[in-house]
């Protein structure tokens, strides 16, 4: 069964406690937390106070996705807030090996994110250092975008790399995930699926999550 991580970017921020409890009571596994700085991506989402508000009510691990420049400057603060996973963009980290070490030293699981235009072979030297690899299946910055189909082939390549390295790295996918794309992704080797608008725009989010869980 895939790990399901609803993106809180698509939640109702005026009812953040209600939407956090909705996920607590669902079959979802993690809370996906999208942090955008308006520099690395062309949008600003939210930062520490909102993350803290979610954490206060969350009964499942926080999966923090940093779409920011200089993520190394903010790792300790997200770790202190109680993040379980912290993922940084390969494109934002000239010293990715050091940054992964920093995340682990802070007591969190370490993830690397690849934009759609970044090939998976960029991870060859560090795959065993990654607890998680997050493949973007849209260009980061906004929820509700269309899934980029070439991601399926990227998942296969990444799965092969992980198998060859005898690593237990989790493959997570983010962007445009719904029942159809989710099914293809799981068949290709994805372990975890992020879903924002597909979950929260639905009249029955619990059932939508259940559908993804039973893919
Ligand atoms: C995009 C974010 C995603 C986004 C997913 O930059 O990283 O997590 O919220 O939203 P959907 O599932 O609507 O594509
Ligand atoms: Zn995300």
UniProtKB/TrEMBL annotation:
Q: Which residues bind substrate?
A: 7, 65, 141-144, 174-176, 196-197
User: What reaction does this enzyme carry out catalytically?
Assistant: D-ribulose 5-phosphate = D-xylulose 5-phosphate
> Sorted alphabetically, which Gene3D superfamilies does this protein's record hold?
Aldolase class I
Give the pathway annotation: Carbohydrate degradation
Q: Which GO terms fall under molecular function for this chain's record?
A: D-ribulose-phosphate 3-epimerase activity; metal ion binding
Catalytic-site annotation from UniProt = 34, 174
List the EC numbers from the record: 5.1.3.1
Q: What's the record's note on cofactor binding? A: Binds 1 divalent metal cation per subunit.
- To which protein family does this belong? Belongs to the ribulose-phosphate 3-epimerase family.
Physiological role: Catalyzes the reversible epimerization of D-ribulose 5-phosphate to D-xylulose 5-phosphate.
For this entry, the protein name equals Ribulose-phosphate 3-epimerase
Which organism does this sequence originate in? Answer: Lacihabitans soyangensis
**What's the gene?**
rpe
């Amino acid at each position: 069964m895939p790990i399901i991580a609803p993106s809180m970017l698509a939640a109702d921020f005026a009812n953040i406690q209600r939407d956090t409890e909705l996920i607590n009571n669902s079959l979802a596994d993690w809370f996906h937390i999208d942090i955008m700085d308006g520099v690395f991506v062309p949008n600003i989402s939210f930062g520490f106070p909102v993350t803290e508000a979610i954490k206060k009510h969350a009964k499942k691990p926080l999966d923090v996705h940093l779409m920011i420049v200089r993520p190394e400057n903010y790792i300790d603060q997200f770790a202190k807030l109680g993040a379980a996973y912290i993922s940084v963009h390969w494109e934002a980290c000239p010293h990715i090996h050091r940054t992964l070490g920093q995340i682990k030293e802070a007591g969190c699981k370490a993830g690397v994110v690849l934009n759609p235009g970044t090939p998976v072979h960029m991870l060859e030297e560090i795959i065993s250092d990654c607890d998680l690899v997050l493949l973007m299946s849209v260009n980061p910055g906004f929820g509700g975008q269309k899934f980029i189909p070439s991601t399926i082939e990227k998942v296969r390549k990444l799965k092969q790399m992980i198998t060859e390295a005898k690593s237990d790295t989790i493959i997570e996918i983010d962007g445009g995930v719904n029942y159809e794309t989710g099914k293809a992704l799981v068949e290709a080797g994805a372990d975890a699926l992020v879903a924002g608008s597909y979950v929260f725009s639905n009249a029955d989010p619990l059932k939508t999550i259940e559908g993804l869980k039973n893919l």
